[in-house]
Design goal:
single chain, Glutaredoxin, 4-stranded mixed β-sheet, globular
């Protein structure tokens, strides 16, 4: 499973979601970070990205546990998965 960690009001997060048809990629799950979503927070901690998320979003964790934070690289990775 690939996870895309985002938060509401994040311009870069919204840009990625607008550029890629995430619904067409079956193994990508968008995880909205907020105090209500304990699963997203737990996964963020599991992948040791809590400190990173305080500085930079979005964060993509690929199925091979690679961490990608550049919006251009995230878009390219997701587009390659969609084709």
């Amino acid at each position: 499973m690939t996870y895309l960690f985002t938060k509401q009001g994040c311009v870069k997060c919204d840009w990625v979601k607008e550029q890629v048809d995430l619904k067409s990629i079956s193994d990508v799950q968008v995880m909205q970070l907020d105090s209500e979503n304990s699963e997203a927070l737990a996964l963020l901690a599991y992948y040791e990205c809590v400190a990173l998320s305080e500085k930079k979003l979005p964060i993509l964790v690929s199925d091979d546990s690679r961490i990608i934070t550049s919006v251009g690289d995230i878009k390219n990775y997701l587009v390659s998965r969609d084709s």
